[in-house]
Amino acid sequence: MATLGIPQNTIEILQKYNFNFQKKFGQNFLIDTSVLDRIIAAAEITKEDCVLEIGPGIGTMTQYLAESAGEVVAVEIDKNLIPILEDTLSEYSNVTVINDDILKVDVNKIVEEKNGGKPVKVVANLPYYITTPIIMGLFENHVPLKSITIMVQKEVADRMQVGPGTKDYGALSLAVQYYAKPEIVANVPPNCFIPRPNVGSAVIRLTRYEKPPVQVNDEKRMFALIRASFNQRRKTLVNGLGNASELGVSKERVAAVLEEMQLSPTIRGEALTLEQFARLSNLL
Ligand code: SAM
Q1: How far is the CA of 82 from the centre of ligand 1 (A)?
Q2: Residue 84 pLDDT > 70
Q3: What is the pLDDT of residue 1?
């Protein structure tokens, strides 16, 4: 099978199967071999690796992964793509395609079955409409993984990397930076896809920390605090957290803890570092 990274080969396959793109599944297929090479290089795939691919599409990146990895498991939601994948991946015996929704499958079980529970590498050109739940699901369910190398909307990649004091800083930045070291490895323009997306894209690698960079007694509680702080971004922490009934803390208690941390009583969540959120959570 000729490489699908070459536009003409992708067009031929789409025509052969009379494939209709489904907007609701965020289908933009890669047609640029240099971008594919960069993703594989950034993910540092070797024959020792088991790779989980989310949304293989017609199998463009899957072909590259199958060449470099020991084992590839690809989860694709669109049943119309399954016969196409059988065709485009027919030469590879190390690929398993699962027709399911990545947000519904038990990823831990897949890793257990395919890699004996050892850490996998996740590589994907993600459907942009569910980028955040996919990443959060992998981290919060403690899926054993070494790294996640993904194509996302440029703006979302920026959000994962930034610190306090910028408009993009939020719950996603803090969650990603608690679990992993983020590095943008490539910016990718719309003309590298068919059909072209309306936004610029970027490849970002998230390298999982063995131990989180901050010490927190109750991870779930810290993330509940973070979510509450950014739900009401324009409010001070005293008001935002004091009003969030699910947290069960009074405004007075928040004010007292802020004082203990030597922070201003009118500070907003967007000014706090991950370390400060961890301390706030431990003290509250
Ligand atoms: N990997 C291919 C490529 O690079 O050309 C396709 C990438 S396309 C941006 C996203 C893919 O994810 C599509 O094939 C889409 O059908 C699939 N997808 C969308 N939602 C999904 C979900 N919830 N679970 C699994 N796959 C999904």
Answers
A1: 12
A2: yes
A3: 64
